[in-house]
Amino acid sequence: MDAILRDLTEAQRSAVTHIHGPQLILAGPGSGKTRVVTHRIAFMLAQGIPAWNITALTFTNKAADEMRKRIDRLAPGQPVWMGTFHRFCAQLLRRHASLVGLKENYSILDTSDSKQILKRAIEVAKVSTSHTSPEKIGATISRFKNRLALPETLEGQSLGANEHVASRVYAAYQQQLLIANAVDFDDLLLHAACMLRDNPDLRADLDLKHRYIMVDEYQDTNLAQYAIVRSLSIDNPNLSVTGDPDQSIYGWRGADISNILGFEKDYSDVQIVRLEENYRSTPEILHVADTLIRNNSRRKDKHLFTNNPSGPPVTLRMYLDGYQEADDIAAQVAMNVGRGEIRPGDVAIFCRMNSLTRVFEHAFNAHAIPYQIVNGTEFYQRKEVKDVLAYLHLLNNPGNDVAFARVINVPTRGIGAKTLKDLTAHADRYRMPLLEAAREVHAIKSLSARYQKKVTDFVEMYDELAAHAMLPVPDLLGLLLDMTKYREYLQTMADDEADNDRVANVDELVSAATDYDDRHQDEASLEGFLEQVALVSDSDAWDDAGDRVSIMTLHAAKGLEFPHVYVIAVEARLLPHERSMNSDAELEEERRLLFVGITRAERYLQLSYTRQRMFRGSHSPMAPSSFLVELPRDTMNLVNTPDLVDQCYGGGDDYNQDMGYPDSWDIEDESLATEKLGLDDEICQLPDEQPGGDGIGVVKERPTLGIVGIKTAAEMLQRRDSGSLPGETFRAGSRVSHPKYGEGQILTISGRADKRTAKVRFDIGHIQSFILKFAPLEMAKS
DNA sequence: CCCCTGTTATTTTTT
DNA sequence: ATAACAGGGG
Hints:
The protein is an alpha/beta fold. Helix content is 41%, strand content 14%. The termini are far apart.
C-alpha cells in the first residue's frame, strides 16, 4: 500500500484513492496520467476489490499492454481486463452474438472489405450514385452508426439528400453484413450498445460484473462508446474517466468532445481532479504548446506548468523541400547519436499524413540510422497477406462473402467475373452466402458444365481444408498454402524485386500466427487470431525495444513521449489540412493535433516547414502553416524563416516562389549548418549529398520488411518474450548455398523449431529438402 | 476467361 | 505515386 501511494502528489493521490462513484480526471499532457491510472488499479486491488470486477478501456492495445506491465509490477498476476473499446465489444459480441442476429464466429471486416459489401448493398438498394460515391455513402453510414442511428430510426426523419440516399443503402448494407455473418468496425460498438439497451437483464449482469470501469482518452469517445460505458455504470456508477479536451483529435471519427465537457452533467457527485503539472517537457516546450492551444475557444481553461529545468529553445526551421528536410533531420540525429548525446530510440518524427514518412526511409538509410515507420495496419493491407487471411476468414466463417470473392480465383482457377456474377445472383435471390451458392452451382443454368466443374472443384478443396480447421493456426496456414498452391502462385508471378517481398510477407504472416499460437497456448483459436489481426492499430506497431527512430503520424503519436521530437511539414493545406478548413471546429481539432505533437517532446523540439514538396507525383509550392504565427516566436530559435512574417497567409494558392526569398540560399553558410541544439558548440556536419543533387532520391532499394524498416507482423503481435527459432533467417525466396550443390533458392519453409525444413531448388536444377538444424546450408553472399 | 495496357480517381487522420 | 478500373487482344 505504501508503495502505491508514495511519491504521488496531492492531486494524484486524491484521484487514486477515489474509487467509489464517478470521477473525472482532467489530465494535461505529461501529467502522470498513466501513473495515476495504474496506481489506482493497484490501490483497488489492495482494497480487496476482485480483479475481474475491474475493466480498463484504453485507446490502443499498446496502451493496454503498457498499463498491464506497470500494474504487474505493483500487483503481479491479477487478471484485470484491459484493452480497447473495440476488443471489449468484440468479445462481448462473441459471447452474446445471437442477441444481435450474429453467430459467434462472425468476421470483423476492415475498411476495404466493408467497402466491397457496401458496393453490393448499393446495387441491391438500387440507388443512384450519380451525385455521390461509395466512399461518401460509407462515411455517412459510419456517422449514423457512431450516433447510434439505426436504419429504422432514420425513417421519417428529415434528412439531407445525401443522407437520404445513405440511409437506404444503410439498410441494405446491414442486411448484407448479417447474411455474411460479419460486422464492420463501427458495428462492434453499435451492436454492443444496442445489445445493452435491448436486454435489461444482461445489462444489469454486466453492470455488476464490470463494477469498476476506467476509460482512458475519454475525450475521444463517440456516442456509441459513451452509451456502452453509460449503460455499464448505472447500478454501479464507479466510473473513472481520464482525458484532456485539448487532445481530442478524433472528431472526424465521431468522437464527441462534449462527452468530456459534459461529464459533470451526466453523473451526480462527480469528483473532478485536475492534473496540470507537467513532468515531461521543458518550460520552453510547454510554453509553445500552451501559447498555441490558447487560440482554441472550445476548451476548458487550464493552467499548464512545469518545475522541470530549462532546456534549449524550440526550433522553427524552414527547408527548401521535403528531401532537404528529411536529410537534415537525419543528419542532426546522426550527429547527436555520434556524440553519444542520444540514442536513436530517443527521437521521433511526426507528420500529418502517412505519405510524408516515405522520404525519411531514404534519409535514414543514407545516414545509417535505424528507424521504424509506425504504421501497424500497413502489413495487413498487402494483397498477398489479405489473400491468405481471406482463406482463413472463409474457413472460420463460411458466410464471409468478401473472403469468398477474394479467393475464388486466387490463385487463378479459371473462375472469372462472369461465374462470380452468376453465383452472386443466385446467392442474392435465395439470400444465402456465396459459398452456399457455390455448393448449388449445378442449379445455375447460366453456367456451363465446364465452369460448374471448376466451382465444384473449389468447393471440394475448401471442404478438405475445412476438415482441418481445428488445427493450430500456423499448421492450418501451412496446409492451406500447400493445398491452394498459393506460394507457388506467388513465385511464378514473381518477375521483379518487389515480388520477392511478397513471399516473405506470407512467411511473415505464418510467423505472426506461430507467435500468436505460442502466446495463447490453450486459448489459441482461429477466430481469436483473426480478431487480433483485425483489431491491430497503427500505434500498436510502435516498439520501444528496438532503439530506433520512430516515424509516425500525429494521431499515432498520442500517448507517447520522446526526448527529441521533430514535427515536420507544418504547412498550410497540410496542418491545418485543407479538408478541415470548412469549420472552426475542424480547425481547432487541427490545432489540437499540433498541440499533441508538441507536447510529446521532453527536451528538444523542432518544427519545420518547406517551400516546396513532392505531392501526388509533382512538386508543389508550400506556405507556412497559419499555426506558426500563433507561436511565441520571440522565445524560439528561428532558422531560415525569412517568409515567416505576419502577412502572407492566404490559402496557399496566392503563394508563389517570387515572394521575397533570398536568392542565394546557401546551405553551407547559413545557420542550418551551425545550429547547435543547445548541446554544444560543435558545427553540425552537413550530409554529403546536397538536396536536389544526384545523391538523393536515387536510392532505389527499400529496406526489406523486418530488417530496419517497417516492423514485422510477428513483432507487432508479439507481447512478451519469444525465443528465436533456429534457422529463422532462412525464408522462402532466400538465396542459399550448399557445399555440395552450390547456390539455390528456398522454395518453401515448413515445420517449426527443430523441425524447420527448407525445400531448395538449386541452380543446377536439383530440388531437395533439408532440416535446417542439420543442413550445411548458408545464406548466399551476393 | 485471362492478361496486358492505358486511364482514372484518389488521400487526412484510424478502429 | 499508386491503386483500382476498363477495355481489348489472345
